[in-house]
Design a protein that fits this description.
This protein is about 20% helix and about 25% strand. The protein is α+β, with helices and mostly antiparallel strands. It contains 13 helices and 38 strands. Strands 18-19-22-26-27-28-29-30 form an 8-stranded parallel β-barrel. It has an 8-stranded antiparallel beta sheet with strand order 31-32-33-38-35-36-37-34. α4 packs parallel to α5, α6 packs parallel to α8 and α12 packs parallel to α13. The protein is elongated. β24 and β25 form a beta hairpin. Pathway: Glycan biosynthesis; glycogen biosynthesis. Belongs to the glycosyl hydrolase 13 family. GlgB subfamily. It is an enzyme of class 2 (transferase).
């Protein structure tokens, strides 16, 4: 006679641990466990009134064992393919059991996470939809959840699928990795969730997923399961990108804040699809080679403009889902426009639902009080000395470049990362091991990030917003540099805007503010930034920085843009400046599009369009942009007339493009003459590198831009005869408050 199998016992203390969420391996208690004579099944359903196991056409009633744990024994020798029927006082629901599945992370993944070397961290942490085929041909679909919380005593999932009651879904800890994991069958796209994390202090903390791919729309803070179904159409762009050398290519960047570029009537936000329909043709028409988006990563407070990130792997849900953002990038690529996004690895906000004290300890933030908080922004500073944190950030950089086909990352606030005493008074910071002020761990992180990006994503770029004279920002890491592709030239921005704000009559005393940048222009690979930072917080718009009446302000603006586009380095212009935005930028409202009803503002826009067109068609303005031999002053010292004149060459030195047989880049030279005086200069003798006809290819004072129309009838003829160190010269008219470009006619 066969005896009735008995339940495999578990100590009450261990059951208590499961109920309290403190059991590091709940799968050892819950789920199906074979033993002599049968298979014991335990199910955690605290609010259930009846639980039944369905298997092999049979039903086994479970009894309530301990504070929401139900138990029963199946009279079988092996674990069957079973389901669980749960009733809560009414009709029962049949579900699958999360505690019958193996871990979704392998040993190699856990090893790489421990080492801080998992470059595709997003593939294993976070929420991933998985599908399994059973021996009977049935497909089991669900979502695996995995989170790094090494100091946690327990982790639960609180979600829409358990009525936001995390008690039903405790997670298991995988070895010594600090990773907690659980596969929940039946869960898919669009499911909201959070992690409940029990700290060593006995406190439960409700946290969004640090690796979430999607979120609720702020101010809601839940993470959302998301499986991409997007099919890319930018193969041509991606293939060509891999072979590019951006430092030697044309680059004019249009900086955009997605929420305030343009809005619907009534103030509603554009979606990613709306932006694709409107922004792409606009940027294409103006001829910018790239757009740069202020941070698109999810952030709770719109007034931070995205610079206080709470979900580093999720495009903001304000404009749609992640595939909507993919669509926007795809459309830009198909139009031939590169995409740069601002990235913020320096610091993160203290919002309790996000990274702050994630497992009850300073996990992502530096635990050293003199390093761990940013005094200016009220944020936490990442712990760059912890390998798992560096891994999180390096993987995040790769994620945007690889998963969203982003072409470049502009890294925010690099200076705050490099210096231990940044915004700190004496006594508020601790020197490094050598007694210096450099943050050696941050330097190591930036080198690792740049080295990894350029290894894995050929043709991509990284750009440092670095406001000090740190040496070697764009030097390769192999030579001890930080390894960035470009650096924002904050010195040029500060000096040139300072010069422009002077009345023309006073500018002669500040002439050096416009020439000093050429002393160091090739010390790094530079981007010339006129960014959002220059048109907020009481600084006024770019137009309003210019002195004089309205005509003079517009003329100054046009002249400045003409000078900027000819200056060595790549260009970046914040949205609105391209049409002479009147008011200071504010993220809560759209640009002053009504200005385009006025011809003088359409004129500024037309100038920017022509600047981009002529710039792109003049390789001398951008090839070998990091070679000092491609620039030569004609006259840097004409302070009395507020005039600057110089040559941009396409070759490798003075005169290199004049003889195609001796030049590897036989492209016409570009000559720029900028007059920041309020009067024209008639009969101005200009030294030129070659005799012949020089076309006036751009004049910011042209009537088509609503200028005064002073110019050179489209061309000048240079004759032989030394002048200003050049072998030829021409007598030209230099318009007032204007920049003129000349290019030799072939």
């Amino acid at each position: 006679m066969t005896s009735t199998p008995t339940v495999k016992p578990v100590p009450v203390e261990e059951l208590d641990q499961v109920v309290r969420g403190e059991h590091g391996h709940p799968h050892a208690v819950l789920g199906a466990h074979p033993h002599e004579g049968g298979v014991t099944v335990r199910v955690l359903k605290p609010l259930a009134s009846r639980v039944v196991v369905l298997h092999d056409g049979a039903e086994t009633e479970l009894r309530h064992e301990h504070e929401g744990i139900w138990v029963g024994v199946l009279a079988v020798t092996e674990v069957p393919d079973y389901r669980v029927s749960v009733a809560y006082g009414g009709e029962a629901t049949v579900i699958d059991d999360p505690y019958r599945f193996l871990p979704t992370l392998g040993e190699v993944d856990l090893h790489l996470i421990n080492e801080g070397r998992h470059e595709q961290l997003w593939d294993v942490l976070g929420a991933h939809v998985h599908r399994y085929e059973t021996p009977l041909g049935e497909t089991i679909s669900g979502t695996s959840f995995a989170v790094w919380a090494p100091s946690a005593r327990g982790v639960r999932i609180k979600a829409s699928f358990n009525s936001w009651d995390g008690r039903e879904h405790p997670m298991r800890q995988l070895g010594t990795s600090g990773v907690w994991e659980l596969f929940v069958p039946g869960v898919g796209n669009g499911t909201g969730y959070k992690f409940l994390i029990l700290g060593t202090d006995g406190q439960w903390r409700e946290k969004a997923d640090p690796m979430a791919f999607h979120t609720e729309v702020p101010p809601a803070t839940s993470s959302v399961v998301f499986e991409s179904s997007y099919s890319w159409g930018d193969d041509e762009w991606m293939t060509s990108r891999a072979g590019r050398q951006p430092v030697n290519e044309a680059m004019s960047v249009y900086e955009v804040h997605l929420g305030s570029w343009k809005k619907h009537h009534g103030g509603g936000l554009y979606s990613y699809a709306d932006l694709a329909d409107h922004l792409v043709p606009y940027v294409t028409d103006l001829g910018f080679t790239h757009v740069e988006f202020m941070p698109v990563m999810e952030h709770p407070f719109g007034g931070s403009w995205g610079y206080q990130v709470t979900s580093y792997f999720a495009p903001t849900a304000r404009f749609g889902d992640p595939d909507g953002f993919r669509y926007l990038v795809d459309r830009l690529h198909q139009a031939g426009i590169g995409v740069i996004v601002d990235w913020v690895p320096a610091h993160f906000p203290k919002d309790e639902f996000a990274l702050s004290r994630f497992d009850g300890t300073p996990l992502y933030e530096d635990p050293n009080p003199s390093r761990g908080e940013h005094p200016d922004w009220g944020t936490y500073v990442f712990n760059f000395g912890r390998r798992e944190v560096r891994n999180f950030l390096v993987a995040n950089a790769l994620y945007w470049l690889e998963e969203f086909h982003i072409d470049g990352l502009r890294v925010d606030a690099v200076a705050s990362m490099l210096y231990l005493d940044y915004s700190r008074e004496p006594g508020e910071w601790t020197p490094n091991v050598h007694g210096g002020r450099e943050n050696l761990e941050a330097v190591q992180f930036l080198q690792e990030m740049n080295g990894t990006v350029y290894k894995r994503v050929p043709g991509a770029i990284t750009i440092a917003e670095e406001s000090t004279s740190w040496e070697g920002v764009t030097r390769p890491t192999s030579e001890g540099g930080l390894g960035f592709g470009f650096k924002w030239n904050m010195g040029w921005m500060h000096d040139s805007l300072g010069y422009m704000q002077h009345e023309p009559v006073h500018r002669s005393y500040h002439h050096g503010e416009m020439t000093f940048s050429l002393v160091y222009a090739w010390s790094e690979n530079y981007v010339l930034p006129i960014s959002h930072d220059e048109v907020v917080h009481g600084k006024g718009s770019l137009l309003r920085k210019m002195p004089g009446d309205r005509w003079q302000q517009l003329a100054n603006l046009r002249a400045y843009l003409g000078f900027m586009w000819a200056h060595p380095g790549k260009q970046l212009l914040f949205m609105g400046a391209e049409m002479g935005q009147e008011s200071e930028w504010a993220e809560a409202r759209e640009l002053d599009w009504w200005l385009l009803d006025h011809p003088e503002h359409r004129g500024v826009q037309s100038l920017v369009r022509d600047l981009n067109r002529v710039y792109a068609g003049t390789p001398a303005a951008w090839t070998r942009d990091n070679d000092p031999g491609t620039f030569q002053w004609i006259d840097a010292n004409d302070a009395g007339r507020n005039v600057f004149s110089f040559i941009r060459r396409g070759g490798t030195g003075p005169g290199a493009t004049s003889d195609p047989a001796t030049s590897d880049l036989a492209t016409p030279d570009l000559v720029c003459v900028a007059n920041f005086a309020a009067v024209p200069h008639e009969g101005y003798r200009l030294g030129l590198p070659q005799a012949g006809v020089w076309d006036e290819v751009l004049n910011t004072d042209a009537e088509s831009y609503t200028g005064s129309g002073v110019g050179n009838m489209g061309a000048v003829t240079a004759v032989e005869g030394d002048w200003s160190g050049q072998p030829a010269h021409a007598d030209i008219v230099v318009p007032p408050l204007a920049t003129v470009w000349f290019r030799r006619r072939d």
